[in-house]
Amino acid sequence: MVVATTALAFTAGAWVVPTAFLYLQWFHYMRQGYGLARMYFRATPDGQVAGGRDLATDAVIYLVPFYGIAARSATMGATFLNLPVKAVVLPEAVTTVLGRAAPAAVLFWLLRSFASLLRGTLDTIYAGFVLSHIAIFLVAYVGIEDANTGWLAINVWHNLQYVLVVWMMNQKKYSGGVDPAARFISRISQPGRIAIYFLSCLAISTGVYIVLGSFVAIVGGGLAITVGIYMGINFHHYIVDALIWKRRRVPQTI
């Protein structure tokens, strides 16, 4: 992926890869929000019904990010993360429609959630997650004027979500104790060690990017090499992530 991205940066222009990153990142974060919302929904009584859907939540999950990226594209200019980009600016009429549809969907969802709260049937954890999804996309893409700062806000939110989900899955996987075949990951995944898990991820990723930074400085190559390596890693993550979460679990036999 890094080789392909670097080649693209050299041949198609340095703006192509950062522009692709801007929109693929937005899509990736939106889809993760949808996937987590589905996980929460399946834990509710309605979600236990085969084929059950929560269309009001689905509308919010998608419409708010679509309006967010349309608004950002119209105002962000020609650079992103100090790299050249060419934003896809939608016709003003389309952005206006999205700007009305998204608040309407949010208002309907809020009214429905409030009614459920009055009846005592509101799943507060599920509703809280959806509310956080609405808030971060509006803050990152609409509320924060600077595109780089907005990117940082939603990137931190995304990574915290991701690490927390993986932590919960690993905690369940290694609930029986330390696995001799995976001592490190199973040890830091034991109950009560979530802080150690987060710090371990932070330390490893920091070390990796320090090495990458040194490598880029030694190799040189300018903007194309830098874009190719860093963006290639992100694109690899998007592809692998999409494949991992769609894999079906293979039943284990004794």
Describe this structure in words.
- The protein has 9 helices and 2 strands; from the N terminus they run αααββαααααα.
- It has helices spanning 2-12, 16-42, 55-75, 92-119, 124-143, 147-173, 183-188, 194-219, 222-246, and strands spanning 79-80, 83-84.
- Strands 1-2 form a two-stranded antiparallel ribbon.
- A hairpin with a 2-residue loop joins β1 and β2.
- α2 packs antiparallel against α5 (124-143), α2 runs parallel beside α9 and α3 (55-75) packs antiparallel against α4.
- The model has no long low-confidence stretch (mean pLDDT 87).
What is this structure, in a nutshell?
This protein is mostly helical. It has 9 helices and 2 strands.
Q: Unreliable stretches, pLDDT < 50, 5 or more residues?
A: none
| Biggest sheet descriptor | 2 strands, antiparallel
Q: How large is the count of helical segments?
A: 9
Shape: flat
| Helical content band | over 70%
| Strand residue content | under 5%
Total number of β-strand segments?
Answer: 2
Radius of gyration based on Cα positions: 21 Å
H/E element sequence: HHHEEHHHHHH
Observed structural traits:
single chain, 254 residues, mainly alpha, two-stranded antiparallel sheet, 9 helices, 2% strand, flat
Topology:
Layout: H1 2-12, H2 16-42, H3 55-75, E1 79-80, E2 83-84, H4 92-119, H5 124-143, H6 147-173, H7 183-188, H8 194-219, H9 222-246
Antiparallel strand pairs: 1-2
Helix pairs in contact: 1-9, 2-3, 2-5, 2-9, 3-4, 3-5, 5-6
